[in-house]
Amino acid sequence: MNKKTLDLLEFNKIAEKVAFYALSESGKRAILRENPSSEYGDVVYAQQLTFEASVVVEKYLLMPVVAFDPIDEIIKKAEVGATLTMGELIKVRPYSHN
Length: 98
Prior knowledge:
Blueprint: H1 3-8, H2 11-19, H3 25-33, H4 40-60, H5 72-79, H6 86-92
Helix pairs in contact: 2-3
C-alpha cells in the first residue's frame, strides 16, 4: 500500500495501539515495522493465524504466547565477541539448541 493510503487509514496509530499489548520490546519493534499486505495469499495466511490463535484462547483458555526475557541485546553483544555474564548465559540458555 502507498503512504497516502496508510496515512488515510491511520495505520501507524493502529500499530502503536497493538504494540502496546506486546509482551517484549522486540515484539513491539516487530509490530511497528509491519506493513499491511495487498497480496491475497499473505492476507489469507494472516487470517488463518488469527483464527488459530482465537481457537487456542477460546477453547483452551490459553494465551498462544508467553512473556520471555528480551535477549536481542545479549545476542548482539555475543555477535561482536564480548564476554557474556552468567546471568546473560542463563537468559539465553532456553533458546539454545544444545
